Amino acid sequence: MVSKRELKYRANQAIKYAKWKNEIINERLIKETKYLKRKEQAEVWYKEYLSGKTILQIALEYGIKYKTIRNHFEQFNLTFKLYRKKKNPKAGLYQQIRDSKEYKNWRTFIFERDDYTCQECGKRGGYLEVHHIKEFAIIIKEADIQYFEQVEHNLILFDVTNGITLCKACHENKHLLYAVSDT
């Protein structure tokens, strides 16, 4: 025979177990709801992406980070291209220029001149990039450079006054400003 005290103890344990189980179920429901909301939002963004908007344009429209949209696309296996641009026939030329010794020397000179420090936020070291003050593509377009051989005659492309050291975040912000001003 079980005492009243034992019955009361078992009843309390059963109540505690039921509360614990309800909490677990509620947590799962909350997680599933958040997951479904994220998936729904990702699908909305993805439809806009497929309609021709870039991820950057969508991020600006919704006031969120570019990375957030990319992460949502990756989480829900929605395919996208990191830098979806119209086919550029000069893309091979751009790569040849960036692979050239002159470009690498120019880049190194800018880093050393700026003491490997971001000129926007002052961050020293880490992942740094060199930014063309006058855009790379504009220089090539204005100089009407069609072939790599024409590059050596263009002085402005490797002009050290046309380069600045930036950290990745500041460089993205610079291009974000260009994207906003272009629209």
Describe the structure.
The protein has 183 residues and is mainly alpha-helical. The protein has two domains: 4-75, no CATH class; 91-182, no CATH class. It contains seven helices and two strands. It has helices spanning 4-50, 55-62, 66-75, 91-99, 101-113, 136-142, 168-182; strands spanning 128-132, 163-167. A two-stranded antiparallel sheet has the order 1-2.
Task: Name some characteristics of this structure.
elongated, 183 residues, mainly alpha, single chain, two-stranded antiparallel sheet
**Mean pLDDT reading:** 83
Physical arrangement of strands within the biggest beta sheet = 1-2
Q: How many DSSP-defined strands?
A: 2
Helix content: 55-70%
Number of domains: 2
Provide a quick synopsis of the model.
The chain has helices spanning 4-50, 55-62, 66-75, 91-99, 101-113, 136-142, 168-182; strands at 128-132, 163-167.
